[in-house]
Amino acid sequence: MPGFIDLADAKLHLRLDETEEDMEIQRLIDAAAAHIGSIYGVVAAQEVNFQIDHFAANVRVPYRPVDGETIIVRYLDALGSEQVFEDFRAYARDGWTWLQPKVSKAWPSIAPVEGAIAITATAGYSPANAPADLVHASRLLVDHWYNNRDGTDLPPAVDSLLNHYRFRRV
């Protein structure tokens, strides 16, 4: 999994010149990206896939940012055959991407099974275009885990930097 920072950036932050721990530092970079993605929904550049059980009026893509042109909606129809639904529109609201049927269209009928809908898209930031708060939070996580290998609590600064990315219903 790519991260919001690269190995050179992490080593500069850690003030390390040697190479013997490069694999461990890379694992920490990957872990920082996974942590940020799972808590805040912001991901490093990648293809994302998720499944839902039914269509809501508006479907939120739980990752950000999303390239709306890359979204593919697949579903199992009432007979259990996989279909592609193209009559949707993607729109952004409050930093999240939402899907809804195009005007005068409706979501299709689906099979009554878990995970009947699969959505794929390209999402995320590369290290070159990641916002400064994601970069700094990644550095803090890598530094914390590198220097505190006993599982101590995360630094509060990480949540302070990233809390505004959380999804909130209003």
From TrEMBL:
It comes from the Bacteria. Pfam families: Phage_connect_1. NCBIfam families: phage_chp_gp8 (TIGR02215), put_DNA_pack (TIGR01560). This is Head-tail connector protein. It comes from Sphingobium olei.
